[in-house]
TrEMBL record:
Residues 10-184 form the Nitroreductase domain. InterPro entries: Nitroreductase, Nitroreductase-like, Nitroreductase/BluB. GO terms for molecular function: oxidoreductase activity. Keywords: Flavoprotein, FMN, Oxidoreductase. The keyword Protein transport does not apply. The keyword Flavoprotein applies. CDD domains: Nitro_FMN_reductase (cd02062). SUPFAM superfamilies: FMN-dependent nitroreductase-like (SSF55469). It comes from Mycobacterium nebraskense. PANTHER family: IODOTYROSINE DEIODINASE 1, NADPH NITROREDUCTASE. This is Nitroreductase.
Length: 221
């Protein structure tokens, strides 16, 4: 797959088929992830793949409870989902949140059908500087394999329960960075069309100064 196709069409897929992901496919996804850049080549990461159906059922219950917490915050005007980007239209933002909630509801309602959960752990990660390149590489590699997914952090609301279920050696400093739900998507890949153009969110030689070129449409394909 062309790198630009992967970059432009990898998006969050929440509607997933229950078909299992072969182990060799999983291996290729993670092998790409561990090639990601990380400070000092410390490789302070660990990935826990979960395909045990009973474990997934337990995580499904935690996921629904954790998600309810986040939407309670949203309804109260708090939490990360409330804030819009500077200059963004609040109505458009609210509509986007409603669409996301709809697809998120599907994920929550069908969580037990997800074929693979990938928990990502790190030590002293400086705000994610070392782990998020690996996560994005995993998602890009998954896209090349026809596998979709979504990165979520809501289970950090129940990190103690997650650590216990997975037997995480927290005394060594390991902390969950995120969880990926992975599976073959029911929907279609496509270029995200709802992005503000480059020249609206970029500056040159100082904040707010013109970037120097307008990009009114995606530059791929």
């Amino acid at each position: 797959m062309d790198i630009h196709e992967a970059l432009y069409t990898t998006r969050m897929m929440r509607r997933l088929r229950p078909d299992p992901i072969p182990l060799d496919t999983q291996a290729r996804i993670l092998d790409a992830a561990v090639r990601a850049p990380n400070g000092g080549n410390t490789q302070r990461w660990h990935f826990v793949a979960v395909d045990d159906r009973e474990l997934i059922r337990e995580f499904a219950q935690l996921f629904r409870r954790a998600r309810a917490i986040e939407y309670e915050k949203f309804s109260a005007g708090a939490g990360p989902m409330v804030a819009t980007a500077p200059g963004a239209d609040p109505t458009t933002h609210a509509e986007t949140m409603c669409r996301m909630q709809g697809s998120g509801n599907y994920l929550a309602d069908h969580f037990e059908e997800i074929p693979l959960l990938l928990f990502v752990f790190a030590i002293d990660d400086l705000g994610g500087a070392n782990i998020y390149p690996a996560i994005w590489s995993a998602l890009l590699a998954a896209r090349a394999e026809g596998v979709g997914g979504v990165m979520t952090m809501v289970l950090r609301n129940f990190k103690d329960e997650v650590n216990e279920l997975l037997g995480v050696p927290v005394e060594e400093g390991w902390e969950m960075s995120a969880m990926l739900t992975l599976g073959y998507p029911r929907g279609k890949w496509g270029v995200a069309a709802n992005r503000r153009p480059v020249h609206e969110v970029s500056s040159r030689n100082g904040w707010g100064k013109p970037f120097g070129i307008e990009v009114p449409q995606p530059l791929w394909p």
